[in-house]
Design goal:
With 270 residues, the chain is of the alpha/beta class. The protein contains 8 helices and 7 strands, in the order H-H-E-H-E-E-E-H-E-H-H-E-H-H-E. Strands 3-2-1-4-5-7-6 form a 7-stranded mixed beta sheet, with helices on both faces. Strand 4, helix 4 and strand 5 form a beta-alpha-beta unit. The longest helix is centred in the N-terminal third of the chain and has 18 residues. The N terminus is likely disordered.
């Protein structure tokens, strides 16, 4: 899975743009940054861990929410996307930390909310490791929020009948099988892993991309493809050679793919 690790590391400027664009897309799609089921009293001090913070865009957004009194800590194994510390809000702290490894003792049991988002490619072992670390970080009664792109629901959509969807169907097939042994249904393991580790799953919901946001979703698919360097994935290279130009133009003609996002909210018992 070396190719997956390299893809996840990204290619700097385009990767950062994609991450930030995805944040605002999800906020517009869902209407929230922190799920309303998470009971955080207004103006009560709330300590939040953002796992795999990347550009820290989610951490900054939550930290600047006037309805919250948040102390946000972002964790990522790779700090290359971190903004300069001097440009961060005073209530955001970023840490170079592998979220699959044990966390320092002073952090354990100190967080009210642990947030995961858009890991795209995980196996069940990594999911369990991340959930276990979240439990270690949480106070009793604390919440886990996890949102992922759900590729199991990908399908073509057109504005009229008889439009050619062959390139979009090729995109969907490639999205589901970008690398050997990639399991596009891995997101279905998130809630069971939380339950197996003793968390109470409160919400497991899918939100479909609505038509007004299909253009933005299409643009993010294109950005993601541009972000993958040649030679990393035979499936992606083949798709880009045969279909990229057509798919890039399809959306303006009313041909695209529609997909969903999975949100899981769980709580650590008191």
């Amino acid at each position: 899975m070396a190719a997956v690790r390299q893809y996840s590391a990204g290619t700097d400027f385009i990767s950062a743009t994609k991450m930030n664009y995805f944040h605002y897309f999800l906020k517009q799609l869902t209407g929230w940054t922190m799920h309303p089921h998470i009971g955080v009293p207004a103006k009560q001090a709330t300590r939040i861990a953002d796992m795999g913070t990347q550009t820290a865009i989610w951490a900054i957004d939550v930290a600047e929410d006037p309805k919250l009194q948040a102390d946000v800590h972002g964790f990522d194994v790779n700090s290359k996307f971190f903004p300069p510390a001097a440009w961060l809000p005073s209530n955001v702290t970023l840490h170079s930390q592998d979220i699959l490894s044990s966390f320092p003792e002073p952090l354990l049991g100190t967080f009210d909310v642990v947030h995961f988002r858009l890991f795209i490619m995980l196996d069940e072992e990594k999911i369990r490791s991340m959930v276990k670390n979240a439990i270690e970080l949480l106070k009793p009664g604390g919440f886990v929020q996890w949102i992922e792109h759900d590729k199991t629901s990908l399908r073509p959509i057109t504005v009229s009948e008889n439009q050619d969807t062959s390139s979009v169907e090729a995109l969907i097939e490639m999205e589901k099988h970008p690398f050997p042994n990639y399991n596009h249904a891995w997101v279905n393991s998130i809630a069971p892993a939380m339950s197996a580790e003793g968390l109470d799953v409160l919400v497991e919901e899918r939100i479909q991309t609505r038509k007004s946001l299909l253009t933005q979703m299409h643009e993010m698919h294109m950005l993601a493809l541009i972000d993958v360097p040649p030679g990393l994935s035979e499936a992606i290279d083949t798709f880009k050679e045969k279909h990229f130009s057509t798919v890039a133009e399809d959306c303006a003609k009313g041909v695209s793919s529609v997909d969903s996002f999975l949100t899981v909210i769980a709580r650590k018992p008191m």
